[in-house]
């Protein structure tokens, strides 16, 4: 099941995926029309996004607001390094924190592609070309460890790899539809899945990991969108 994508969400995703977060009105209409959205619907969405501060209009072009552009980081896949067997680990040491603080920290850790082994213990293979941020707060301790003799089994405990792989296969099949709106909606669902991909080292991924094929297909589709926007002037 793939949920419909609003014109607003479609435009945000298009601008995030594009080479530049700036497009002319004609480029916006060309891209969204190709995705199956009526031009009138798109123009209403653009007006509302400008009013809400999500789009900035200047010199006849529209630019995605900075807080939305931040989602572009690691949109399809984070940069990785050869895995040397180490693991990143974040241990939450404080108790009794407000629910909002707990939810915010959880969202941050998930965005860093860590997974919770048990309450308050988060970890992942140390194969990402990034450092954990310094602003995780006083409630955490960041460690580097060499966790277990059977890292494949540990990955299976940390992430629902079978479910992720099955969902990727479903989306790959659905993307083949000839209907442009349905294809775009499915690609958006693929992007959502890719943001939850643990980006495991190749030696820890299940055989035939369908997420890799989904990433290639989604990347090719987004490249087509980029060419479409570059080829249209105002």
UniProtKB/TrEMBL annotation:
Gene3D superfamilies referenced in this protein's UniProt entry, alphabetically: 1.20.58.1460, 3.30.70.2650, Winged helix-like DNA-binding domain superfamily/Winged helix DNA-binding domain
Occurrences of domain Transcriptional repressor PaaX-like central Cas2-like (ranges): 82-133
Domain of life per record: Bacteria
Domain Transcriptional repressor PaaX-like N-terminal positions: 7-64
Pfam families linked: PaaX, PaaX_M
InterPro entries from the UniProt entry: PaaX-like_central (IPR048846), PaaX-like_N (IPR012906), WH-like_DNA-bd_sf (IPR036388)
GO biological process: DNA-templated transcription
Protein's name according to its UniProt entry: PaaX domain-containing protein, C- domain protein
Lineage: Bacteria, Bacillati, Actinomycetota, Actinomycetes, Mycobacteriales
């Amino acid at each position: 099941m793939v949920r419909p994508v609003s014109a607003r969400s479609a435009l945000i995703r298009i601008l995030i995926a594009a080479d530049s977060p700036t497009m002319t009105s004609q480029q916006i209409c060309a891209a969204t029309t190709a995705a199956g959205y009526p031009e009138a619907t798109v123009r209403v969405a653009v007006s509302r996004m400008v009013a809400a501060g999500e789009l900035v209009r200047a010199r006849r072009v529209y630019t995605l607001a900075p807080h939305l552009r931040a989602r572009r980081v690691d949109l399809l896949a984070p940069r990785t390094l050869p895995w040397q067997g180490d693991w990143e680990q974040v241990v939450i040491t404080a108790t009794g924190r407000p629910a909002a603080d707990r939810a915010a920290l959880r969202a941050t850790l998930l965005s860093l592609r860590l997974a919770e082994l048990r309450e308050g213990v988060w970890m992942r293979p140390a194969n990402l070309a990034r450092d954990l941020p310094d602003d995780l707060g006083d409630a955490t301790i960041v460690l580097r460890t060499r966790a277990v003799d059977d890292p494949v089994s540990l990955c299976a405990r940390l992430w629902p790899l079978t479910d992720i792989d099955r969902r990727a296969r479903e989306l790959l099949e659905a993307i083949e539809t000839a209907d442009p709106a349905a294809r775009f909606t499915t690609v958006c669902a693929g992007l959502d899945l890719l943001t939850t991909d643990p980006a495991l080292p190749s030696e820890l991924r299940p055989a035939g990991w369908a997420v890799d094929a989904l990433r290639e297909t989604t990347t090719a589709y987004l490249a087509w969108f980029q060419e479409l926007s570059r080829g249209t002037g105002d």
